[in-house]
Amino acid sequence: MTKKIDFRRRGVLGAAAGVTALALGFAPLSAAAQDWPQKPIRIVVPYAPGQGADILARVIADELGKRVSQPIVVENKAGAGGNIGTAAVARAQPDGYTFLLGTNATNAANEFLYEKMEFNPATDFAPVAMIGLLPMVISTSTDNFPANGIAELIKQAQAKPDTLDVGLPSTTAQVVFSEFVRSAKAPLFAVRYKSSSQSMTDAIGGRVPLVIDTVTATRPQVAGGKLTPLGVTSPSQTDMLPGVKTVSEQGLPGFNIVAWDALFAPKGTPPEIVKAMSGHIQAIVEKPEIRKKMQDIGVEPLSMDDVELTDFVAKEREKWGGIIKEAGIKLG
Fold this sequence. Notes:
By secondary structure, the protein is α/β, with parallel strands linked by helices. It folds into two domains: 30-134 and 259-327, Bordetella uptake gene, domain 1 (D-Maltodextrin-Binding Protein, domain 2), CATH 3.40.190.150; 136-250, D-Maltodextrin-Binding Protein, domain 2 (3-Layer(aba) Sandwich), CATH 3.40.190. Helix content is 42%, strand content 19%. The chain is built from twelve helices and eleven strands. The protein is globular, with a radius of gyration of 22 Å. The termini are far apart.
């Protein structure tokens, strides 16, 4: 079990350490960071109980509690595409006891989708650690649309412009669709749905020949022989759908649009706590048993520290913002 952080020193050693730290240009440790954590930690999930982000948060929370010897409370604050819970964390005390299970929506896309936001994803949070990626899958109805890959799909779309319907059950699916149509010059027709269950039902029933959704939603239908996956949108193939090539391998080099989950803290959280929590999350994500649990729920484990995540999120905001603006996607 990992011990709690205790940066304190006594007597002359403590004084000497303090002088050395100042000489090297480091700020003295905050009182809050000296013996963290001393009470339960809260992870806010800005989505409803039972959804993928909630299940993932509970997997991480269970293991994190063992490492820090404190209860980890997962609190659901759903609404407005994740904006309600995310805003609550932005306003929380930056004391190291409140964190956000953030996503590509809350921390990259939503600012470009909604007219009004009660938080600024670029300035109101301290990135802590990446947890994992959620590849999207472009699939066809096995019985109703005989295509074996992305190149064939593009060819058929170009031969019959705007006649091939694609089921889109989420904003992420809409963004994937928009970038695919643009980069492949494949004139497909978007059919928007409110849920995966609706789009999957119509795809399996032949009412729409194509669907874009997460690995989580797609995998059972592939296993049952009801859908054929044409390509995954991640930069590399995933063990969660073995043998399925990436879109980028099939004629669209560099195509990379995935959903993701990461941990964030309110801006102003002591950097020592951010670093410590980052280390815990990275260690958890690297555990084989946790990796298996994550893949079972459709999340590809990915370890990044706070510095790497900061750079990643900045690039994701630029990418998602550019696609959303060009496609004219708006939610409110």
